[in-house]
Amino acid sequence: MPQQLEYDEQGSTFYYFLISFYGLFLLPATYFLWPSRKKAAGETGLVCQCDPCRHKRVRLEEEQPRETLWIITRVAVIAVLWLLLAFMLYKVLTAEVSYEEYDPFSILELNSDATMGEIRKQYRRLSKVYHPDKQGGDQDMFMKIAKAYEALTDEVSRENWIKYGNPDGPQAATFGIALPSWVVEKQNSIWVLGLYMLVFIIILPIAVGTWWYRSIKYTTANLLIQTSQVFFHYLSKPRQLTIKRLLMVMAAAFEFNPQYSKLLPPRPSDDEELTELIHSRDLPHLTVKVKEPVLREPWAVKTSILIHAHLGKVGLPPATLRPDQKTVLKVCPRLINEMINILNQVWIYARYRPSPQVSTPPSQDVYESVMRMSQMVVQQTWDRESVVLQLPHIQTDMLRHFRTRRRNITTVEEFVAMKNADRRSLVRAISDEDYLDVMAVCSSFPHVTISTETQVMDDDDRHKVTAGSMVTVTVTLERVGLLEKYKVDQESLLGSGTVSLEEEDDPVINHNNTVVENVGAGEKGKSQRPSWEKNKKEETEHEEPEEPMEEKSGSVSEEG
């Protein structure tokens, strides 16, 4: 006859089972749900007050209550889950132990050091009290007393008790199920069976099916499969892939197709607003007359226009195209990474599995062009434009002061490295408030220094590398702000070495005021110009016409 399984009557062992599986869920859930600490903005002391930065701060402040509510909700959920774990631990610690070790001395009501005479005497006394023939006797207790007496007086029984904890010798192991007994009770069977069907027959298949249906539509980068197919089709063609064409390919991502995604829904005002942008002169690099599949679709053309408007710093209607542009820009980094992955696949196919469709591996210029696209989207500038245009209030017509015979300022770091007076003179066409905005943005630019050290850890001479040795390379990366790197004092940005536009002798605004400084008793009343204003006068006299910017490799060019 099969042995009947024992269930947990008191529920103590069930809590052990529940805590084990609950802990496997709770620990990773706490790790992923716990809100991460974000670095506070504005730690450099300078805050840009230009319109885009102010609008961004206002938008972040508007989103802050929702984010705070979401953080509070997550913390509350985590707290409730841990309180539930604490409750289960409390139940385990306070549960009564059903298993008791067999102790014949306690049954005979004796101390463990009792002598043989005391054992016999106590046995005779208790057997008279609990003998079943006596009035008020207890047969079960009498049997326990007899067994305890035998365990202490019989040598074999005593040895079995000492070795195995039972005078009868080793016992058969009993197993049970760590589930409460009400699970198998007849009156609860319908509810248990219903819960089982709900979880394992309805919810679980639906969850797995939903996950599978979604997974077959997306790549590991959480992009649509159709997007990767479009990228592979155009990136594997043996033709020149300029940045202009790569932008068109990126705009053809199916994330922007209304039939596959809701990120970029069509609007009734699109025809009028997009047509106005197409016929304007603000987007000189835009090409909309495309006959190739997917690239000619209206949603792909709209996406391309929004990307070109971003790179050209063209203002868009705030209620329609501007939100769409923000949506496109959020997806662009993932699309660029996917294009790099597709280029790697094309290179592998062309190198190891050539076919008529994929016969030529992509060149290094194509890789560089795709990487420059990421830089362009982040910096909001075309690749052949000066990187200084990233700074607020810096216009294209001001670049002629950056590249002359006397100086050649091509990067933000070179601009910050200048003396305060010379730097202020270079952007003399903007106000002091705008100049502080420029320096506030410069303070967020990093200066990164990378140093490496090679060592052979097991050799006496660690810095001597021999053939076949195991080399350990230590890479140290140091990151500091540009203002800290070049020791630019934020408080002296508008010090005595600078003059506001109202006091500057600028031929553009035609103000001829001077700054008077008493430099000595013999020079009272003489007008002294600051160094940056003298430099300005020299530039006015000797400045060359603006030199054309040299085109970089992979720059945007018109396509036939």
From TrEMBL:
Protein name: Translocation protein SEC63 homolog
Record PROSITE patterns: DNAJ_2
Cross-referenced CDD domains: DnaJ (cd06257)
UniProt keyword annotations, A-Z: Membrane, Protein transport, Transmembrane, Transmembrane helix, Transport
Domain J: 103-165
Coiled coil: none
One of the record's GO cellular component terms: Sec62/Sec63 complex
Biased composition (Basic and acidic residues): 523-540
Mode of membrane association: Multi-pass membrane protein
Cell compartments where the protein resides: Endomembrane system
SUPFAM superfamilies reported for this sequence: Chaperone J-domain, Sec63 N-terminal domain-like
Pfam families: DnaJ, Sec63
Listed transmembrane segments: 14-34, 69-90, 190-213
Organism of this sequence: Geodia barretti
Gene Ontology biological process terms in this record: post-translational protein targeting to endoplasmic reticulum membrane; SRP-dependent cotranslational protein targeting to membrane
Primary localization: membrane
One GO molecular-function entry: protein transmembrane transporter activity
Region entry Disordered, spans: 504-560
InterPro entries for this protein: DnaJ_domain, J_dom_sf, Sec63-dom
